[in-house]
Amino acid sequence: MPSPSTLGELRAAVEAGRVPRRTVRQEVRENLIRKLAAGERVFPGIVGYDETVIPQLVNAILSRHNFILLGLRGQAKSRILRALVSLLDEAIPAVPGCEIHDDPLWPICPVCRARVEEEGNAMPVAWLAREARYVEKLATPDVTIADIVGDVDPIKAARGGVQLSSDLTMHYGLLPRSNRGIFAINELPDLAGKIQVGLFNILQEGDVQIKGYPVRLPLDVMLVFTANPEDYTARGKIITPLKDRIGSEIRTHYPATRADGVAITAQEAWLERDGGLEVRVPAYVREVVEEVAFQARADKKVDRRSGVSQRLPITSLENVVSNAERRALGAGERLAVPRVTDVYAALPAMTGKFELEYEGEMKGAETVARELVRAAVANVFAGFSEGLDTRLVVEWFDGGGTLQLGDATPGAEVLRQARKVKGLLELASRISGEPERDAPAPLTASAVDFVLEGLYATKRIARSEERGYHATETVSRRPARPAEHVFDEGFPAPAQGGKKKYYN
Prior knowledge:
The chain is α/β, with parallel strands linked by helices. The protein has 3 domains: 7-251, Rossmann fold, CATH 3.40.50; 258-376, Helicase, Ruva Protein, domain 3 (Orthogonal Bundle), CATH 1.10.8; 380-503, no CATH class. The chain is 42% helix and 13% strand. It is built from 23 helices and 16 strands. It has helices at residues 7-15, 24-38, 53-62, 77-83, 110-119, 145-148, 154-160, 174-177, 193-197, 200-204, 231-234, 240-245, 258-268, 283-298, 311-331, 342-345, 358-363, 365-384, 391-398, 411-418, 424-432, 441-457, 472-477; strands spanning 67-70, 91-94, 126-129, 134-138, 150-152, 170-172, 181-186, 208-209, 216-217, 221-227, 248-251, 278-279, 335-336, 403-406, 462-470, 500-503. The strands form 6 sheets. A 5-stranded parallel β-sheet has the order 4-7-10-1-11. The chain has a 3-stranded antiparallel β-sheet with strand order 14-16-15. The longest helix has 21 residues, at 311-331. The protein is elongated. The chain starts with 6 loop residues before the first helix and ends with a strand.
């Protein structure tokens, strides 16, 4: 059935029950109830919150609350707020051209009231899409009350010949322009205290007052906020009366399990590359990248109060794939398969994603990042190698064997070198899940690299920039090198220009 196009048709549709009339919060509540009853996913794309955050969100919406999401950076707070748009009706009727999307049946704007009175049932009706009913503002210290609520426009008053206290002189801010929709403020503590006071009325009484004049706008708005708990003291705070008026305070968190983190990263990272190369990311590489974030969140050298954003594994995995892409293009391979050593090439995507405590500052961000990668590899390798016998490989290195491999070494060359090590290719095939004869060389080479990096991370073999992978005992017997040539023991050199890594 076509939507009503005039005020008269709209009135008839409302009386017949074809067009509902309700507040925004009631509209969101009823649409949520419909989704829950139908078994639909309420917040698609939000991973890891099914048992924690989402039930609290559902309760807040069912209670018709304004709410605030409290959480550290990179915890999907803004994404959750934007997902609320899906709980709005597809379109609602509005007065055409009205800045505050007035309801044709109950206009609060003086211009719209005059227009309804003048045109009557013949007045055209516009339909406002749900996307246009969501307004988001990032709070910054320079935001003024005029930006949020509005101000008196003296020019309008002079041109119209009306008093400054008249509704006709108003220049509406973002909040009135969100009328009949959702208004979101990100990083609420950054909003100056006097601006927060300006939100009192809209939260409690549902109206705003502009510039101290007796102008009252009974707005219909759902207000939602985000904040970082640490910002209460670092950059500002939410004033107590405002907190008291916010219906629900919901805490977000980082992924509770590595599997949740992997799912989020796979959803957000750009891995479908152009350029004609096929990209295949092994499960152990995805898990190592994700485990780096988990290690960072638990490391005492990393400031836990500032958090470690989920953007760390997302951007890191993109860099890891890019390094594999670079290697494949240089070697003329059609398949790009990331290796664990490519994770070290992704350090630039990690070091800016966490803040360091004093001990970490003394070591340096890059050194800390290398430690995190090594710890992540050790954890992931322990899971993948459970039940596998690695003694033959370790014994080969203990017998004086060495391997010289680089991050730019083609897959075929890695396999040629690996054949010298008894049992290495068998281990790689078990981990990759594909027999060596059937698997493409880049995939098996990646598994070989994982085995070597895993043994190195668990301190069963050693590695140096000059000698590559080698036996740990050999390292202990080597004469000390001059200090200026000593590489940070236990950590690989930056993967630039195909530097060799020697295993023995």
